[in-house]
# Entry
Amino acid sequence: MSGAVIALFLVLLVVGFDVGFGMIATTYMSVLTGDRMVNGTILPLQIVGGIDKYVLVAIPLFILTGEIMNRGGLTQRLVDWALSLVGHVRGALAQVSLLTNLMMAGVSGSGAADAAATGRILVPAMRREGYNEGYAGAIIAAGAMLGPIIPPSVPMIVYAAMANVSVIRLFLAGLLPGLLLFAGFALIGYLYPTGQLAEHRRPRQPLAVKGRATLTALPVLTLPVVVLGGMRFGIVTDTEAAAVAAVWALIVSLFLSRELKLGGVYQATVTAARSAAAILFLLAAAGPLGWIIAESRINLEIAAAIAGISENPLIVLLAINILLLLVGCFLEPLPAMIVFLPTLTPIGMSLGVDPVHFGMIVILNLMIGMLTPPVGLLLFVAGSAGKVPVAAIIRRVWPFLLWSLVVLALVVLIPGLSLWLPGPV
# Structure
């Protein structure tokens, strides 16, 4: 039965089924054709149970925060601030893109939203200054990858709900790997200026100009500190922090920048609701599929196969990383987590890997998948936002991919990179 379940799910995906509907259809077909009598009321209960977790309320709130920022002109404030700080260095707009994405990552939690927002502003600007358009798109895609790794992060919230670990510990675990990724990307942008057809260097801005730009962007710059600080010191829960972020972004956009009108609030709410509904539908569909997988013991068979590769924990972790990297080439992160986490999490526990450390390994692998063809979501979003052919971005994204793999190896081999800030349980 386990082979039939996997085969049916893969066939449905190949013929064009949505991942969520494919999971539900697989579950019902497995029940109808299986040799066990199952009460039909169990499956709707499993669907509801898939999203019956309070922590998931944070997902639509963080997505709404990002939408309000984009429509309220706060992204442009971040770009102007970054330009005042690093506009004079080599590969200036590449550095501006990365620094802007770093700060946006501390607010929105969604890589796709960050790529869409910064791509619309910065790719045309880079094109005007002589940047190779594929290189410009690659910079945007790589910078947006920081969104789900630097807290807050939608994938981290999903992992925390599925693996029953602390959201704030996962958020803190992502800070050092995220900053390490940013540092490497910035160095590539400095040492790899061949993406530019002509170097355009601005004069170093005086301190007064930097101060004014910082003051203008201060309401946005303080938001990640408020969110993480409030959670770290127990002032707010993770869900309350998401609500604080959304309300703060709304106040700033309506009354300080005054670029967001009531119609824009409605549009941002509708867009955020649709995005959140898609994510929560996947989680709901994963409930019955996870149940049928447990019933058919597929997870135990896969776990035994992976664990049987070697008695060396590092070899087993290497096999898990290879599996996740391959999966990330074809599945987006959230569906991949939903399908594979019930199987992989027990393997991590059997190896003695801290669940937070294992979560960072899983998330990093799947975020790297967002930069890899053929289904690299960030490649397509950056290409669409900047009107750049995806093939051109793929040709220029490899240095960023290689550095991401280096950071992944460091996170796997040095648990302290993930566990130093969260500290012991």
